Amino acid sequence: MYAFQLFSIINDEQQYYDEAEIYLIIPIMLVIAPIVYLIRIKIFEKFVYGIDIKKIEEELEKYDADDVEIDNKNK
């Protein structure tokens, strides 16, 4: 985002600044913002909150397997 603004300031040929650049920034930010947010979530979960997603998934799979085993015994 800052690169477009910096380029428009350096480029002296433009008469108006920040008018058309926003239309170029929007598609780029639609891709970059979710990627950065997902990286931030993973970092916070692992290092700040101490949550390990892989361990949680393994525990859920264990519970699912136990439920299936109990259902098979009850039949």
Quick summary of this structure?
79% of the residues lie in helices and 0% in strands. With 75 residues, it is mainly α. The chain crosses the membrane at residues 20-39.
Structural commentary:
- With 75 residues, the chain is mainly α.
- The chain has one domain (2-74).
- 79% of the residues lie in helices and 0% in strands.
- The protein contains 3 helices and no strands.
- It has helices at residues 2-10, 21-48, 53-74.
- The N and C termini lie far apart (62 Å).
- The mean pLDDT is 80.
Largest sheet, described in full?
none
| Total number of domains | 1
Total strands: 0
Strand content: under 5%
Keywords: Membrane, Transmembrane, Transmembrane helix
Transmembrane segments: 20-39
Q: What are the main properties of this structure?
A:
membrane; transmembrane helix; 75 residues; single chain; transmembrane; 3 helices; mainly alpha
Topology at a glance:
Elements: H1 2-10, H2 21-48, H3 53-74
